[in-house]
Amino acid sequence: MCLRGKLVEEYYDDLERMCTESIVLTPNGQTVALNIPAGQLHAVKALESGTVILEVKDGKYEPLSDEDVLTL
Questions:
Q1: pLDDT score, position 34
Q2: What is the per-residue pLDDT for 65?
Q3: For residue 3, what are the CA distances in angstroms to 21, 25, 55, 58?
Q4: Cβ-count burial of 44 within 10 angstroms (0-12 exposed, 13-18 middle, 19+ buried)?
Q5: Residues paired with 50 in a beta bridge
Q6: DSSP 33-66
Q7: Which burial class, exposed, middle or buried, applies to 25 when counting CB atoms under 10 A from its CB (0-12, 13-18, 19+)?
Q8: How many CA atoms lie within 13 A of 34 on its CB side?
Q9: To the nearest 10°, the Cα dihedral for 23, 55, 14, 66?
Q10: Is there a contact between 42 and 12 (Cβ–Cβ < 8 Å)?
């Protein structure tokens, strides 16, 4: 759910990890929130400084591999 700002949610395919769909979310726009299906590869990118999201998961996050963990 986009609480403030603007973001894009990108869905990826399982094999080539190519973006298959991009959805823009804004608090007062056409899309405010998404339900991402279990197992769907995805990424979220803030499009404005100060963007705030609310993310809720069913259970804890369990990466499938070391590549699924972002390190800075």
A1: 95
A2: 78
A3: 21, 9, 10, 20
A4: middle
A5: none
A6: ---PPTT-EEEEEESSTT-EE----SS----SSG
A7: buried
A8: 21
A9: 140
A10: yes
**What is the pLDDT, as a whole number, of residue 62?**
73
Q: Cα dihedral sign for 18, 69, 42, 4?
A: negative
- Lookup: tokens for 28: 């007062």
Q: Which tokens belong to 43?
A: 């990424």
Q: How many residues does the chain have?
A: 72
* 28, HSE (Cβ side, Cα atoms, 13 Å): 0
Amino acid identity of residue 64, one-letter, is L
- Predicted pLDDT at 67: 73
Mean pLDDT by groups of 10 residues along the chain of 72 residues: 96 90 95 92 94 88 73 63
